[in-house]
Amino acid sequence: MGLALAALGLAQGVMSITKGMAESTEAKYNAKIKEQQAQMIGVSQELEAAQYNRQIGRAASTSIARTGKSGLAMSGSPMAVLLDTQTQMEMDKAIGQYNLEAEKRFALSEASMYKSKAKTAMMQGVTQGFTQILTTGLDYGMRSGWFTKPTANIVGKGTINVAPKNYYLKNTKGL
Questions:
Q1: Which residues contact 62 (CB under 8 A, 6 or more apart)?
Q2: DSSP-derived secondary structure for 92-137
Q3: pLDDT tens digit string along 125-161?
Q4: Please, are residues 65 and 38 in contact by the beta-carbon 8 Å criterion?
Q5: Whether the Cβ atoms of residue 126 and residue 20 lie closer than 8 Å to each other
């Protein structure tokens, strides 16, 4: 019975360690996914910035061409319209870049959280597992009498320490 309980305790300890390792692996995988997501958002930022720059250039070229076609100089009202258009487009670009940067930082923050969770899961699993194994060993040892000194109750003398069972027999082997 004691050996079966010891085996069960050992199995529980190993299962705790295995569970911690599995949770750690899962969290590391999730962290990699979030890091890849952040990289993809960074690429989106670059593409969006390039698209805005292209649109700003196209709007400026169109405005200059129309002004020139009408025979006006690029000063005064036409220049004010061009600057206002560019300013508005740059603000739209900045807002888009800010939003994408916030998404990217959030994804990186989640990746960091998953990495921390991986370390915590591993430590908890190992700690719980070894605690279970040590507790099982201690319990088994106590039940087996490993940690108690053999005693005998002698009438008139009370309980006294004696040699362990078969102590003298096992020490005479080989004589």
A1: none
A2: HHHHHHHHHHHHHHHHHHHHHHHHHHHHHHHHHHHHHHHHHHHHHH
A3: 999 999 999 998 888 877 776 667 777 888 888 888 8
A4: no
A5: yes
Q: What is the pTM of this model?
A: 0.68
Please check whether residue 40 is in contact with residue 108, taking contact to mean a CB–CB distance below 8 angstroms: no
Sign of CA dihedral 61, 67, 71, 73: negative
Of the candidates 4, 30, 1, the residue with the CA atom closest to the CA atom of residue 118:
30
Q: 158's torsion region: left (phi>0), alpha (psi -120 to 50) or beta?
A: left
Q: 3-class secondary structure for 11-32?
A: HHHHHHHHHHHHHHHHHHHHHH
- Every domain of the chain and the residues it spans: 2-149
